Amino acid sequence: MKLISKQLDKEGAGSIRLQPEEPVDLWHAYNLIQSGNILKASTFRRITKEKDRDVAGGGISTPSSSGSSQRVQLTLAITVQKTDFDPSAGALHVSGPVAEESPHVRLGAYHTLDLALHRPFTLSKLSNAPWDSIALQTIASACDPASRAEVGAVVLQPGLANICLVTEHMTLLRQRVEVAIPRKRAADSAVAHDKAITKFYSAVAVAMQRHFDYGVLKAVIIASPGFSGEQLLKYLLDTAAKDVDTGSATAGSNKMLIKSKNNFVLVHCASGHVHALNEVLRAPEVLARLADAKFARESATLEKFFSVLSEGDEGGGVKAWYGPKHVAAAVDRGAVKTLLISDRLFRSDDVKTRKHYVAMVEQVRSQGGEALVFSSLHESGKQLDQFTGIAAILNFPIPELEDMSDDDEQDEVQMERH
Amino acid sequence: MSKYSGFDEDDFYDEDEDRDQDEVLSPEDHKQMEDAVTQVKNILRGTTATDAQIRDAVWNYYFDVDQSVKFLRDQLKRQENKRTNAAKKTAGSKAFRERALFADTITCRRRTGHYFNDEDLRLSKRLSSSSKPQPKIPLGSSCLYGISVFDGIPWGLPTSMNTDITYCGRPTRMGLLGGSSKLAALAKARAVKRQQQHEQNEPMEGIEPASPSTPSTASQPGSSLLLNTSVLPSRSDSGVSISKRLTSLLAERSRDRERTSSRAISPEKQSYLRRTGSYSPSISSYSPINSDLSSASGVFSENMPSSFATSLCDYSLPPPTFSSPASPSSFPGVSNVDVYGKTNNGMSADEIWKLITNKPFFYLPVTERQVEEIKSNFDKPSPDDIIKEAQATKGGTIGAGGSKKAQPQQKGSSRAELETEMKSLSIQELAMKASQPKQKINVVEKFISSRRKAHVNFVVVGHVDAGKSTLMGRMLYDVGAIDERTIQKYKRDANNMGKGSFAFAWVLDQSKEERERGVTMDVAMNSFESSKVAFTILDAPGHKDFVPNMIAGASEGDFAVLVIDSSPNAFEAGFVQSGQTKEHALLVRSLGVQRIIVAVNKLDNVNWSEYRFDEVKETLLAFLSAAGFSESQTTFIPCSGLCGDNIVNSSVRPELSWYTGHTLLEELENLTTVDRDIGAPLRMSITDVFKGNASSAINVTGRINAGNVQVGETVLAIPSNETATIKSIAIADQANDWAVAGDNVQVALSNIDIVHLRAGDILCAISSPVKCAKTFSARVIVFQLRIPLIKGSNVLIYRGRTTEAARILRLSALIDKGTGKITKHKPRHLVSGQSAIVELEVMGSSFPMETFKASKDLGRIVLRQEGITVAAGVVEEILSVKNEATNE
């Protein structure tokens, strides 16, 4: 992300002009844009010309009315009502009524802005929902060029492989490879089994070639139970070497593969399903390489939370809690050591809810605790979302929390909404 | 006699266009034209291109000389080809027939319809409105061979016009455009006769040969008629109106129809429609035309031949005199088989004609008078609707033919007739019915009366490297199931690999990787028979990464053999928390195994020490009884897989004289088989799907959980919801006509595609299909946990071969292990050792499931998380099922 200009007053109201540079920046934008904000960006709109006067869409002109229509590029400011983000396509659509006068479009007519890479946009927040610390932190981390670790990850088990791209803030499942592998049976069948296994590895290799740019990736993690990962790596390197020797069409990318041989990390995991990624990203081999990467820290923290939770009463009381009510109470008592919070909670349409969580994060930080905002596009964040999206590891146990009734139903309603 | 010498669409069109052209040419254009023509002429000197052709080409390409030359060259070449082809044809109809056979294997399918449709629409409008000669149609171009489809298509072709050439096999029963040579000859004779009667100016030969063949689909009458009419203008040099011809044609049709006084689309025809509709995908694009018949003009204006039809069109263009009886035989696909599926050899022409005239659906349903009739017919369910209906209801009524449902309005008398006729056609839709075995076996009676040997399935479990495979290899060798030569070979190969002690394990570890690594990865199934019992061994992997495979194996076994490595420290290593001895024992118990035999293996490593044996025994006994194995159901045997002591033969070793009990085999023979409900509806869980070597059938292996199955029966595969017919059954590699619950079988299935079957699917009786659960509640026992289970935890559900991602939706209640009573509602989390009722949501695709009450086998699940078994339990209630729409 490129920060072009920033005009904020004391309360934090004002506008910031940004230019997304990478697909992940659209994810940041998605987290920044809230309903009620004013978003201004260049866009296209079909304008119907009626005789001498331009008529804005949105009700006045009917499709049957005569007159020519034409696509016009114009800059529109809208009051955000709805945002829609598609992580795999890298598209962010923001819609709402037009908020500023324009020569072509009537005020209040609805428009959808498609934010695109390399096209700047201006986001203004009013004083009732100003730029808060979380939003500013998001911008800071988005504009930090150092935080661009991109890692390729393949989790596989015989017959099933998931090929993912893991960036600082997103895990993108690029392809799922499924090959039916006949079981070994007596006599003839071992051959069929071995054949199917080879077919499977070649399918995975092709998929990796398509989705991974070995020159850019910081690391390529291959994770599997058993020996599949090892076999796959061997297959990759063998075929790449063969390819380079024979000089086939894929020789170029294979050369790159051999060059980045040392970037491959073999990790053990329990299954070939995507959510095994969480386990993979906190493996010591991965942490050694990518300790500063956000996703690795997230996975490790979540793991820590679970281990504290499973300790149970050993330290004189439970020191790990989840759920908005319990965590809020813990924060009030200044007991929180690490706050785990999903960015989903900040995307709430309700300004009050967002303010509440932002205040919670600020309070924890001011108390000397750590607050970690999980990306809900990572496996760890998804898992956190499964249990309310907020959790805390405490410095000391708070017995009162045990007696608190938890509003399960309310939690569920909240979960259903997302 | 070349049929092409007399006419060429292009020529015909060109001359006409030239005339028009001259009228509109401006002087400048004229000059340009002359220049271009001269240039082209110079270039094409020595060829047979006529002046008119050149002018036309030049005009078409806007005086672009290069393009025109290219076009003309190609055109000339094409004409040359046509001529030679025609010459060949006259030379011998035999050669032509061969070519036709080849050509009919090629269908040209239109990729997108728009372009052609527009063109067709335009064309047909002109057809019906004016007698003006038609512009050139790329449709009618030569298509004797698949490649020549592209001939005659003008340049600058839009991509939408590109054709896809698909090999669809020989469409034997399609009968799109004609009958046999006799039939066609007959039709010709008929046409001549009628011509005299009706004083028609125009001959009908273009249409007549097509008519007998039209019944195969309702759409084809329309299209084939159009096919022929569309080429008529190019052959006619008189100015007679096409529309007039069409009208006369229609009148004739109506007369014929009156004679037979039958409905436009009879039930018989509907049955044909059904069949043909499902028969060849290549003509499926025609089916929408059915509905278009409801408007009379629709036939002409909207439904023009596709390129497929066009490719056939050339065959329907008979030589001008139509005197050769051989040429109609080139109609694709129908040369030997007529629409009744009988050969017409030996039938006289009259007989055939009678046959034709008695079948109302041979007539084109296009007269205006009958439009109303057709409309009324289409008020009834369309053939597709009928098929859908039949499919939807087929589950309910086994044996009630789909055909009956297909013809609800059928009259009683003709029904029987039709049924027999349908049978004689060996219709494909048989697959849709629940076919019954030829001779229904009462399997339950047969099973009781057969008194076959007891079948014992046992799974061999234990920590990695406990010697499971070696022990079983040894057993197979000692009972003589493996011959000496094979073992010698394994020993030699294993020695070469530096793994001499693995020779026996290789009997079961067949795959290359397993042998190289010396680790079993997947369950190996082997069978052998002793004098009393038929055994099936399921050798499970011990490595912790392959626990899923072990679960699959364990779910197929009735009994378990737990193998323990008694070497110093090895037993302890396997018995710690993360070891598999405990996990496996707990898993087999929670998968329903009650009787366990503990083989204390590798006693040779501890000098056959009784003390060590007792130590192992005591430790294990305490654990196993806690896990739910009663002491009377647990047996310990000291043995050595490598040496062969106490496996099949009692040990004669003096060091082992302290043991006087049974050998492993004796102990296994003494197992009493579990009684199962063999009369219940069939449930068979599939463990493997593979294609047979020679036959087209699909082989599946699996275990019959409930009920029975016999050859010829139709079963339903869940979740794909596809039916399949049992072709053969093999129990322990022995072919059998039936199998009952508890058997591990290999079944060959027909009438199903392999994509509909996956390991983990369930085959069940059509009358009682298994449901696919979306959410369900389960009673679980929580194993040793690393992290507690909370709401929202991701888990993997294992049952047999199936794995499915799921998450815990709700922790409903904690229950008391002993009494099963609820002790606490809505716990915050579950920790090790607790029992609880939880609600689970299946994340992935369909998961066929049954409650524990309904099926002891299918109602058991294992939950794992990150490679650790976190819980095992039974399905209590299915809360919501997967949306049925996914089955469509």
Task: Note the topology.
The complex is a heterodimer of chains A (418) and B (888).
Chain A: E1 2-8, E2 14-19, H1 23-32, E3 38-50, E4 53-55, E5 69-79, E6 82-86, E7 91-97, E8 110-115, E9 121-125, H2 133-143, E10 151-157, E11 160-166, E12 171-178, H3 189-211, E13 219-224, H4 228-246, H5 251-259, E14 264-268, H6 276-281, H7 284-290, H8 294-311, E15 320-322, H9 324-332, E16 336-342, H10 351-366, E17 370-374, H11 379-386, E18 390-394, H12 400-403, H13 408-417
Parallel strand pairs in A: 10-13, 13-14, 16-17
Antiparallel strand pairs in A: 1-2, 2-9, 3-4, 3-5, 3-9, 6-7, 7-8, 10-11, 11-12, 15-18, 16-18
Helix pairs in contact in A: 1-2, 3-4, 4-5, 8-11
Chain B: H1 3-6, H2 9-24, H3 27-43, H4 51-60, H5 65-91, H6 93-103, E1 106-110, H7 114-129, E2 163-167, H8 181-198, H9 219-235, H10 242-260, H11 267-279, H12 289-292, H13 296-301, H14 307-316, H15 349-358, H16 368-379, H17 383-394, H18 402-406, H19 412-424, H20 443-450, E3 454-462, H21 468-478, H22 484-496, H23 512-517, E4 524-529, E5 533-539, H24 547-554, E6 559-565, H25 570-575, H26 580-590, E7 596-601, H27 610-627, E8 634-638, H28 664-669, E9 683-691, E10 698-706, E11 708-710, E12 714-718, E13 722-731, E14 734-736, E15 738-740, E16 744-750, E17 762-765, E18 771-782, E19 789-790, E20 794-799, E21 802-815, E22 822-825, E23 829-830, E24 835-842, E25 847-849, E26 860-865, E27 868-881
Parallel strand pairs in B: 3-5, 3-6, 6-7, 7-8
Antiparallel strand pairs in B: 1-2, 4-5, 9-10, 9-17, 10-16, 11-15, 12-13, 12-17, 13-14, 13-16, 18-24, 18-25, 18-27, 19-23, 20-21, 20-26, 21-22, 21-24, 26-27
When the domains of chain A are counted, the total is 3
Fraction of residues of chain B in helices? 25-40%
Global structural class of chain A: alpha+beta
Unreliable residue runs of chain B: 1-22, 98-148, 171-179, 200-243, 260-346, 359-366, 395-412, 425-433, 884-888
Spatial separation of the terminal alpha carbons of chain A: 27 Å
Find the structural class of chain B using helix and strand composition.
Answer: alpha+beta
Query: What is the highest CATH level, the class of the largest domain in chain A?
Result: Alpha Beta
**CATH architecture assignment name of the largest domain in chain A:** 2-Layer Sandwich
Biggest protein-protein interface? A-B, 38 and 46 residues
Shape of chain A: flat
Beta content of chain B comes to 15-25%
Q: Share of helix among residues of chain A?
A: 25-40%
